[in-house]
Amino acid sequence: MNGQVLLRQAQIRWFPKIGRDWDLQIALEDPQPSITQYCDETDPDTLGCPLEEKEIAAGVSDIPDLVFSIRRNWNDTYHIKLASVVRELRATTDSFTNPGESITDKTYGWGITASGVIKFPMFNKNDKIRFQATTGEGIGRYTNDLNTLGGLDGVFDENDKIFTLPALAGFGAFEHWWTEQMRSTFLYSYVRIDNYERQPSNSYKKTDRLSVNYFWSPMPRFDVGAEILWGQRTNKDEQKGKATQFQFMTKYRF
């Protein structure tokens, strides 16, 4: 899912006990900021490369990301979770204002996300809704699409300063059980970026994705499935590209 926050990385995590149905987590995580620098050959004070070219600045954050989350569980099946992150974004790159020299700058990012799995027995007692919504600045690395592309935590401007990129992401999914062995999930997922003025016209602005699948479990722990996915990317200049994908799978759960 393009809009899902799902990142596994080195961390130190603390799980204080606050009750049978509540989970509290506090973690210090590997920061690895991903900052982009764009170049402009028309400006004599820059690196002399085309605006469409970019490089990912070296992340050198000294402080780990601070992540906090709290989750309420029901019957070990359904839950609601709130989480937040505060992070330092420090990076080193070639200077715009002093060509040939390196420059280091830092700023701070933050993010908030809400997610959950809730019961929705309108059609079948096993049906459920899954969702997640995330907003923040400088959190591109935590979002699937933005982390894959890289460089979307923030942007170096022409004055060698880092500007964080505001982001909005999320998904909603409905899981329906046709029978005890057959089920489908209908999903919509999205990502939105508030582009910085200096970014070129072909910069990533947003993506939308729709998918539907069908799974059959002919025996316990064994699944056979098929899925169709449709996606669309929109750039800063509103140019769009679309793609459709079919995939098939089998899985045995040990």
Distance between the termini: 24 Å
SSE run: EEEEEEEEHEEEEEEE
Q: What is the approximate shape?
A: globular
CATH C-level category: Mainly Beta
What can be said about the biggest beta sheet?
Answer: 15 strands, mixed
Strand content: over 45%
Structural category is mainly beta
Estimated radius of gyration = 21 Å
Q: What is the correct CATH architecture?
A: Beta Barrel
Number of helices: 1
Count of β-strands: 15
Describe it for me?
- The chain is globular and about 65 Å long.
- The chain has one domain: Porin, CATH 2.40.160.
- The chain is 2% helix and 59% strand.
- A hairpin with a 2-residue loop joins strand 13 and strand 14.
- It contains one helix and 15 strands.
- It has a 15-stranded mixed sheet that branches.
- 25% of the residues are buried.
- The chain is mainly beta and 254 residues long.
